[in-house]
Design brief:
alpha+beta, Hypothetical upf0131 protein ytfp, 150 residues, 33% strand, globular, 4-stranded antiparallel sheet, transferase activity
Length: 150
């Protein structure tokens, strides 16, 4: 989840005050054994386990500093389409250096939680594109008048 969407869901603003923003740390991470696809007719992705694709991974963000209230808001936002599961991720160096990327694979996994999509039939075959979402859809998910039923 993009930090701006996280803050919109949990705090109803995409640009929180610095003191509030410092409560959470966002680090790039890799989730092995999963893939992320477009959900048919939606802006958002679905992450699913993928045992058939060699080296399947999902790049995302590992967020720390979550409170019970944050998790409640995220659970309501994700809704019945998703199940929150405990997984292992590898924290990424975040600089895109392939040599460091190999070192990253040797790092110890970190326990995390991910929202796994429940309905594989609703997923498109093509992967979801985070950069495309940021360019074309982010504004819809972070606008000031957008509220979530939490």
């Amino acid at each position: 989840m993009a930090p701006e969407v996280f803050f919109t869901v949990c705090y109803r603003t995409s640009q929180p005050p610095p003191a509030l923003a410092r409560e959470h740390t966002f680090r790039p991470a890799v989730l092995p054994g999963y893939t992320r696809h477009r959900v048919r007719h939606e802006d958002y992705p679905g992450v699913m386990p993928d045992g058939s694709t060699p080296n399947a991974t999902v790049r995302g963000m590992l967020v720390s500093g979550l409170t019970a209230a944050n998790l409640y808001h995220l659970d309501v936002f994700e809704g019945a389409e998703y199940e929150r599961r405990v997984v292992s991720v590898v924290v990424d160096s975040g600089d895109g250096d392939d040599e460091k990327g190999e070192q990253q694979q040797q790092q110890q996994p970190v326990a995390a939680q991910v929202y796994v999509f429940r309905d594989e039939a609703a997923l498109e075959p093509r992967p979801w594109d985070y950069d495309e979402f940021r360019r074309e859809k982010m504004h819809s998910w972070t606008r000031a008048d957008y509220t979530f039923d939490t």
